[in-house]
Design goal:
Elements lengths: L3 H14 L4 H8 L3 H8 L21 H19 L5 E3 L10 H8 L5 E3 L29 H9 L1 H6 L9
Length: 168
């Protein structure tokens, strides 16, 4: 797509052509702010930011990147009633975020920022808190054995042939 608006327009037309109220469908599948705020009250839960409009940050200008990160932090903090210190890039692969995006993100003063890149965590990641890997669980009914295997680090150890990957 040329831009995010083109993608949004196409999705709107598809839903309209099939007589689907996508705003209603979103309410059926997405968590409400109320449920997120309740979840945030649990001391074992940390709620982070994820961007305002779920756009690919690499194609935005510097101010738009800052707005996506800081605006998201402000919105989530207002909705859950507590500070937001962590961020997960909406698209965090090599084609979506790069060192330029990481530097801007770092200036937004989050404690950690997680990419969608996979790797085990190593002490050296402490110098790259703006570009951390994250374990992706899709929610597609993973078998517990597969989740445990992923969490053990075995998958990434094999994938990277025993090499420590800090930023990729």
């Amino acid at each position: 797509f040329e831009d995010q608006a083109s993608c949004h327009d196409l999705a709107s037309r598809l839903f309209e052509d099939h007589e689907i109220d996508w705003h209603l469908e979103q309410k059926n599948v997405l968590a409400s702010w109320e449920s997120i705020a309740n979840l945030a009250k649990n001391p074992l839960v940390t709620i982070g930011a994820h961007s305002l409009t779920h756009r690919t940050l690499k194609i935005l200008n510097d101010q738009e990147i800052r707005n996506e990160l800081s605006g998201s932090r402000e919105q989530v903090a207002a909705e859950v009633g507590s500070p937001v210190d962590h961020f997960a890039y909406p698209f965090g692969g090599r084609n979506a975020v790069d060192h330029h995006v990481f530097q801007i993100a770092k200036s937004c003063n989050f404690k950690t920022l997680a990419t969608t890149r996979s790797s085990n965590l190593f002490p050296a990641h402490g110098r790259h808190l703006e570009a951390l890997p994250r374990l992706m669980l899709s929610g597609n009914n993973e078998q517990m054995a597969a989740v445990e295997l992923a969490m053990s680090g075995y998958d990434q150890t094999v994938k990277f042939r025993m090499r420590r990957v800090i930023t990729d």
